[in-house]
Target: Cytidine deaminase
Amino acid sequence: MSSLTPTVSTQTRCVFSFSEKQQQQLYLHVKQHKGILNTADMAALCAQYKQPVEVILRACLPIAAKFAVVPISHFFVGAIVVGYDKHGEQHFYFGANVEFAQQALSLVVHAEQSAINNAWLNGAKKIAKIAISDAPCGYCRQFMNELADAQSFDILLPQQQFKLADLLPHSFGPQDLGNSYSLFNPAPQQHEFVTAAKLDKTLLSYALAAYVPYSENYSAVKISTFENGNFYGCYAENAAYSPSLSPLQSAVSQLHLAGLAMTKNVVKGIELLQTQGKENQLSVSQAVLASYPGLPVLQSISLNIKPTAV
Ligand SMILES: [Zn+2]
Model:
């Protein structure tokens, strides 16, 4: 074979990717399942394309990136968490970056946050891998450092694989603030809200499941839609504070993973629940919502919290 032979055929043997048509079909499937593939879905893809899981996982990253909403950067990032639920069943949780037009850049949701949030809200208990379409920024490395499995999970980039300690040496984490718990390994919940009002029990339970070791503002958001049910978001704090994920951004990310938009034709109502005396989410929520003209007014509720009766 001549040394001038094009190397394209070699590259295509080494790197598997879905065609645009296949990507679109898979995008519709993932959208229908609100950003999650299960083990059977993945096994079927591996069998159909005769590729191992990690190859299919990386090939799915452009599909995850299709969920990105990026009016500022136009830079689409996809991430997929491989996680296990309480029954030990494996799921693939998609995520993508979300930006808010004409608002502070610090409000954006990064793809890694989106995928981790998706896994967390949907019952993942252990994270084994996080695949990302681009190298994680410093903000995301810090966000991932709050996870219970921070020392063990693999970070898969398109061509490389790392442990978080490789990318974030000499890190600052929950233990440095005297917090022995972590995201996905929270302190046992021993509180309940004091309320006589007929509030959505699911919203209350999401708020109590918030990971808020630093502010203690148990907080959640519910976005109700006209035709596609409710989307919930939970507050997830970080020891460095600034990569914390606010409950509204958490809920908006989930809504986008169902392929929906934050428009007045989709969104019927938005509720923010916070802990009385600890509130810190109203102004940031209003800032994010200012990106979307014509939405219903945010309903803000604060409730007292008390120790659960034994
Ligand atoms: Zn990032």
Remarks:
- The pocket of zinc ion is lined by residues 110, 112, 136-137, 139-140 (CB under 6 Å).
- The longest helix spans residues 20-32.
